Amino acid sequence: MSKFIVSKFGGSSMKDREAMYRSAEIAKVHNSHLIVVSATYGTTNQLVEISKVAPIADWKTCRKIFTKIKDRHISLAKALEVDQAAITDIESILNELKTLAKGINLLKDCSPKTYDSLLAIGERLSSRLFTECLVQVWSEKRVSYLDVREVMITDQNFNTARPLKNELRTQCQRKLLEARHGHQAFVTQGFIGASQDGLTTTLGRGGSDYSAALLAWACDADVLQIWTDVAGIASTDPRICNEAVPISEITFSEASELANFGAKILHPATLLPAAEVNIPVFVGSSYDPKSKGTWICEETKSKPLIRAMALRKDQTLLTLKNPKMLQTYGFLYSIFKVFNDHKMSVDSITTSEISVAMTINGQLNQEISKEFLKDLRDLGDLNVEESLSLISLIGNKINHTPGLASRVFNSIPDINVRMICLGASKHNFCFLVNNKDAESSIRLLHQTFIGQL
Ligand code: ASP
Ligand code: MG
């Protein structure tokens, strides 16, 4: 039996006729069994715009956005020369969109449930068109459209639904048997799912990678391919550092640190299902399918000390001090209780006997509320520092390499370093600098650790 391959194509790979044909060729060349697609480029953002505008504006304003989505998909259908049945399906999904937008506009309300049905339209449209495209390109294979809501069964947490994995597995094993035997390829939607009652849900923005990984897991796939608009993962953001180089291989642990610490290329949750059962993940460019791309696997041949570096801007550092806590207990407990009560998550933390420093991914009055800070102030003297950036170096044996810290800080001698986190992970060393110093620090560190390799 041939290898079972799940291929996911993002919005830029669905952008227009050329992008769709290019993606279809890739699916064919790789003999993909299950093809998971995002909405066409920009469509999800326009659907979000409808959800915001429709409850407050008049119908004319909403209709303008609706018309943009409609025109894009109708002209794409024409450019792809799809048959009448496909046109009828596209028109019926567009009618559903119009009805939803009108409903939101009339009721002046867009509940989380409605929002998910609205956003799901994007993937439903693109996958229907892409099915036609793949049928044309791949005449040797039976290609069918699969409504992912038949298999991606989730809880009812609209907007950030989580899969019910047993259900997902059972449905995939049943419905995708034909694909497993190599008789058929399926095209389906990323990002969306359905509750057990059949209500449409979504997995959160950027969730198609996660969908693809879940489907790969549920089908016991051999390979998961993520096709995007860049040739794999780079050693750092090339917009910041023009010496950034493509990474040919990286472990699951390093890649998930990289995603968590700010690299935009993968959704942080993506790798979990693939890592769980050790399905190798390939990340490549659908614009340049011959470029090498990146393999993410459990084990890699090379294990460099520093493989990549990530940057996350606009972090806030909270330092809480209470001298009364000297040689008592319960201080950390009371702090974490406040975090828990406000559903806030701590990123990095260092402590001394009487003070604790913690970073939060966010800014005051946005992610960080006044009430949350007030509750922390009840526990001691609180110092808040804003406009910081978290720099993380990602690699191997980081906490067992003598002299690493001195090499790191010697390469950025003039930069004021705030909190340092080293020791918790063998794959990650991170610290804070001011936003204004962040990009130059990355450039200097890249030169020291990666540029000279
Ligand atoms: N179309 C969705 C979004 O833009 C999901 C995805 O592309 O991953 O968020
Ligand atoms: Mg996307």
Q: How would you describe this structure to a colleague?
A:
- The protein is α/β, with parallel strands linked by helices.
- It folds into two domains: 5-229, Carbamate kinase (3-Layer(aba) Sandwich); 306-449, VC0802-like (2-Layer Sandwich), CATH 3.30.2130.10.
- The chain is 40% helix and 22% strand.
- It contains 14 helices and 17 strands.
- The chain has helices at residues 17-29, 43-53, 59-79, 84-107, 112-137, 165-175, 177-180, 208-218, 252-260, 271-276, 331-341, 370-377, 404-410, 435-451, and strands at 5-9, 34-37, 142-145, 153-154, 184-189, 192-195, 200-202, 223-228, 249-251, 281-285, 294-297, 306-321, 349-351, 355-361, 381-395, 417-421, 428-434.
- The strands form three sheets. An eight-stranded mixed β-sheet has the order 3-5-2-1-8-10-11-9.
- Strand 10 and strand 11 form a beta hairpin.
- Helix 1 crosses helix 5 (112-137) and helix 4 packs antiparallel against helix 5.
- The longest helix has 26 residues, at 112-137.
- 45% of the residues are buried.
- The structure holds aspartic acid and magnesium ion (MG).
- Residues 10-11, 38, 206, 208 line the site of magnesium ion.
